[in-house]
Design brief:
The complex is a heterodimer of chains A (413) and B (143).
Chain A lengths: L10 H12 L4 H4 L4 E2 L10 H13 L10 H21 L6 E4 L2 H11 L9 E5 L8 H10 L2 E5 L9 H7 L4 E7 L11 H10 L3 E5 L11 H4 L3 E5 L10 E5 L1 H6 L10 E4 L4 E3 L13 H16 L2 H19 L5 E3 L9 E6 L4 H10 L2 E2 L1 E3 L4 H6 L5 E5 L6 H17 L1
Parallel strand pairs in A: 1-13, 3-4, 3-5, 5-6, 6-7
Antiparallel strand pairs in A: 2-8, 7-8, 9-10, 11-12, 12-15, 14-15
Helix pairs in contact in A: 3-11, 4-11, 12-15
Chain B lengths: L2 H16 L13 E3 L4 E9 L5 E9 L2 H14 L4 H15 L24 H20 L3
Antiparallel strand pairs in B: 1-2, 2-3
The chains are: A alpha/beta (413), B alpha+beta (143).
């Protein structure tokens, strides 16, 4: 029986669970001293995921679809089983699950294919806290088709200003695309509310679930998502695979994204006709072994109780914040009421890079920089911050140790 | 690398970072920037009547590596001819690009302190920033 986080739980009840789960991660055998607090960038991989990929490569490695041979049929059925597993993971139909390279490619797919249906003057609403992956594809689309980008501003606490959002919505709004969880501030956005307001205005909704996928149950229907994008590697799965969910009717109506093998039903010298869903959006050999690994990651996350895991990470962040409280010159970015296990901070007189290097010398891995969110960094008037992000294997004493090293850093550096 | 060396290098870097001797407000010179971390630095180079660099200075904001590197650079350039300076800057950048051995830094004064980070891709960008800016200035001087 797999240990799983308890809900409702507290740090005391859930720390033993994290300690047991940590044994699932070979990296901590290789590096017993490592305190890994860069989970918002990528999560470590449990052996169940590594084993699933290894097993696929060892026993079923062949290209998918149209294979006559047995090993090819097995590869196809394992790839398609992975799709069904991910469909269950987010409460969708299998035809609605498109495998991509990651969140970035998923959003680019929508910007390209859904973007083709937009015209000059149509409006897209984003927010000030978006990752570059949910900004740049839209800037590129705006330059291409003359669509207008609008931005939901942030309040002082680092939450989306929903009052302004309601005013931004109008009959030209075609798409609202926002993140479920800020990768810098940790803010958990009220996406159900955001999508229901968008729906009332007749707009389509894309949710960036890159940070949410490893810390909360995703149900596309209750989220009100028309599109949902996330990455495998941030949810304890492999690199090189991501997911785009799209409502079947919506995907059916869109032109394809990339062209190539697998996405066609017929090709002549004069042209081509597109394949059915989901293959229409999967050109070329897909990430087959990675899909198998991703399905194993979905199994792992479901077994550990994903919502309780998310709550545990939030509690670790709260404990870390309390321990930081009295450090002079320290500034935490944002103070959202609902915070995931993510904390970004700056310290007067100590550059974030130097702080991260000092922590690294003490075996604590954190990220320093702008975290791929330039507009957000600008909003807070900081060039660079140090980000601490918690995962399933992190422990309260690790949060404490990180905080005490942050406190020391100023004297040492 | 031994800890003793490590701490010697750290001391050199800290010294230039905390007590820079060539840092002052500059105007009318564009910043060289590292967009991945937001560090920015600009460098001025003046050539005296004897044809040698009579003054070099920097200002900007960034981590200890980028700021100490700028101070070390400025200190190093004074007294050199622009041609010598250019050769020096190119040698330093070549080490960071992996085209010259790390030991080459031993011939570059306090810049040897960067031996510890010369093969860390993220920090290399910090260390290179001011030197890239200097190369630009030297090119403007026609070197």
């Amino acid at each position: 029986m797999k240990p799983s986080f308890v809900s409702p739980g507290n740090l005391e009840s859930n720390t033993p669970v994290a300690e047991l789960l940590k044994k699932d991660f070979p990296v901590f055998e290789e590096r017993p001293e490592l305190v890994y607090l860069d989970n918002a960038a990528t999560a470590q991989k449990p052996r169940q995921v590594l084993e699933a990929e290894r097993d696929f490569y060892s026993r079923s490695c062949a290209n998918v679809h149209r294979a006559i041979h047995g090993i090819g049929e097995e590869a196809t059925s394992r790839y398609e089983a992975a799709r069904s597993r991910i469909a269950t993971f987010i409460g969708a139909q299998r035809e609605e699950v498109i495998f991509t390279r990651g969140t970035t490619e998923s959003i680019n797919l929508v910007a390209h294919s859904f973007g083709e249906t937009l015209n000059a003057g149509d409006e897209i609403i984003l927010s000030e806290m978006e990752h570059h992956a949910n900004l740049v594809p839209w800037h590129m689309l705006a330059a291409r088709r003359g669509v207008v980008l609008r931005f939901i501003p942030l309040t002082e606490t680092g939450e989306l200003d929903l009052g302004v959002y309601e005013k931004l919505l109008n009959k030209r709004t075609r798409l609202v695309s926002v993140t479920m969880v800020s990768n810098v501030l940790g803010t958990i956005n009220p996406v159900e509310k955001i999508s229901s307001l968008a729906r009332n205005a007749g707009a389509t909704v894309l949710l960036d679930a890159a940070q949410a996928a490893p810390s909360q149950t995703l149900r596309v229907a209750s989220l009100g998502a028309d599109f949902l994008a996330f990455s495998g590697h941030k949810m304890y799965g492999p690199f090189g695979i991501g997911v785009l969910y799209g409502k079947e009717a919506l995907l059916d109506a869109l032109p394809p994204f990339m062209g190539g093998g697998d996405m066609i039903s017929e090709v002549t010298l004069e042209g081509f006709s597109v394949n059915e869903l989901p293959y229409k959006f999967e050109a070329g050999t897909p990430p087959i072994a990675q899909a198998v690994g991703l399905a194993a990651a979905a199994d792992w996350l479901t077994a550990v109780n994903i919502d309780a895991l998310g709550a545990y990470e939030s509690q670790l962040a709260q404990r870390f914040l309390r321990a930081l409280k009295d450090i002079p010159g320290l500034r935490v970015l944002g103070d959202p009421a609902q915070r995931a296990g993510i904390v970004a901070l700056t310290m007067e007189g100590v550059h974030a890079h130097d702080l991260a290097a000092y922590l690294d010398k003490n075996q604590i891995a954190v990220r320093a920089g702008h975290h791929c969110a330039h507009p957000l960094a600008r909003r807070y008037g900081v060039v660079s911050s140090a980000r601490f992000s918690f995962g399933a294997y992190n422990l309260p004493q690790e949060a404490d140790r990180a905080a005490s090293l942050v406190a020391q850093a100023k004297e040492v550096l | 690398m031994s800890d003793a060396y490590d701490s010697l290098y750290e001391e050199i870097i800290r010294d230039h970072y905390k007590k820079p001797s060539h840092r002052r407000l500059l105007e009318g010179i564009p910043f060289a920037e590292n967009p991945s971390c937001g560090d920015r630095v600009r460098v001025s180079i003046q050539v005296g009547e004897d044809g040698k660099i009579s003054d070099a200075a920097f200002d900007g904001s960034g981590c200890s590596i980028s700021m100490s590197s700028a101070d070390i650079l400025a200190e190093d350039l004074v007294g050199k001819s622009p041609e010598e300076a250019r050769a020096q800057v190119e040698r330093f950048l070549a080490v960071l690009r992996g085209e010259l051995e790390i030991e080459e830094l031993d011939t570059l004064g306090d810049a040897m302190a960067f031996k510890g980070i010369a093969r860390l891709p993220v920090r290399v960008k910090c260390a290179a920033l001011a030197w890239r800016a200097a190369l630009q200035r030297l090119e403007e001087l026609g070197v």
